[in-house]
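Subject: for your reference before the review

Hello V.,

The reviewers asked for a structural picture of the protein, and I figured it would be easier to keep everything in one thread rather than splitting it across files. Below is the amino acid sequence we used in the manuscript, unchanged from the supplementary table.
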Amino acid sequence: MKLYSLRVPYKGDAKAVLLKAAYDVSSFSFFQRSSVQEFMTFTSQLIVERSSKGSRASVKERGYLCHV
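And here is what came back from the structure prediction:
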């Protein structure tokens, strides 16, 4: 299993705020990297905003597994 993204969000009352993020998109082609990173950013932001504070979840999206 390969880790492509590690993000540390803070979920306040309104929106989740990103504290730190790291990405490894080197296994994707040069022209796909920005799209893949944008997909991971959007998906993780959406999952964090829709989940409750302190909860754990695993979401499968487009063949990728996201853990919150």
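For the response letter, the relevant points are probably these. The domain at 5-67 is CATH 3.30.450.50 (Beta-Lactamase). The chain has one domain: 5-67.

Happy to draft the paragraph if you're swamped.

O.
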